[in-house]
Design a protein that fits this description.
It contains 3 helices and 11 strands. By secondary structure, the protein is of the alpha/beta class. The two termini are 19 Å apart. Helix 1 packs parallel to helix 2. The protein has a single domain, classed as 4-Layer Sandwich (Purple Acid Phosphatase, chain A, domain 2), CATH 3.60.21.10. The longest helix has 14 residues.
Length: 183
């Protein structure tokens, strides 16, 4: 099982094109979008190449490969442009190891406000735009960072799960953070 993660696209067509290019190169079967897909949000500047309708058209070509959750900047109007569901606040994935992965955007559930999780569960979220891959109190926390608006001096990044390992990778190919998913 291979999963490709992206978060906080915020309607930037050039950044979404990079995500799709890396997703295709990766060979992953699933693109997990952790929210804030089309709208830049009122607290962010309008990103370079802001083209929400074109981002939707591009992502719709991969609708059968996308699992998405709603971010705080996503709305029902955004959903009308997309051919895959993205209005749920969270979802669960079951990994080949039997581990559960809770996926969410991060504005409702995050590293400090967690849903009920079992020891060795994984929690993937975006929202902070800050890369993270670590085990804390028996829970694996994962944030692929942001594609469009990286913060705290981090480069734009995406996430990858393969062979029981999570990685946050810059678009230049540097591993920013990584964590094994098993003891």
């Amino acid at each position: 099982m291979e999963l490709f993660f992206a978060s906080d696209l915020h309607g930037s067509l050039p950044e979404t094109q990079l995500v799709i290019e890396k997703f295709r190169e990766s060979g992953a079967g699933t693109l997990v979008l952790l929210g804030d897909v089309l709208n830049h949000g009122p607290r962010n500047p309008v990103p370079e190449g802001y083209a929400p309708a074109e981002v939707a058209t591009l992502l719709n070509q991969y609708a059968d490969s996308i699992i998405a959750v709603r971010g705080n900047c996503d709305s029902e109007v955004d959903q009308m442009l997309l051919n895959f569901p993205m209005m749920t606040d969270y979802s669960w994935l079951l990994l080949e190891s039997g581990q559960r992965m809770f996926i969410t955007h991060g504005h409702l559930y995050n590293s400090t406000k967690r849903p009920p999780l079992k020891n060795n569960d994984l929690m993937a979220f975006g929202h902070t735009h800050i890369p993270l891959a670590e085990k804390e109190q028996g829970i694996i926390l994962f944030n692929p960072g942001s594609v469009t608006f990286p913060r705290e001096g981090h480069p734009a990044s995406f996430g990858y799960y393969r062979n029981g390992e999570l990685q946050v990778i810059s678009f230049k190919g540097d591993v920013i953070a990584q964590c094994r998913c098993s003891d």
